[in-house]
Amino acid sequence: MTRLADRTLRLLLTGFHHLLKLDWFIRRPRTFGAHALALTAARKVILVKLRYAPGWRLPGGGRSEDEHPREAVLRELREEIGMTAHGAVRLAAELDENADFKRDLAFLFVVEDVDYRPPRWSWEVERIIEVSLDALPTDMSPRAQRWLTTLRPHI
Question: CATH number of the domain at 31-154, please?
Answer without folding.
Answer: 3.90.79.10
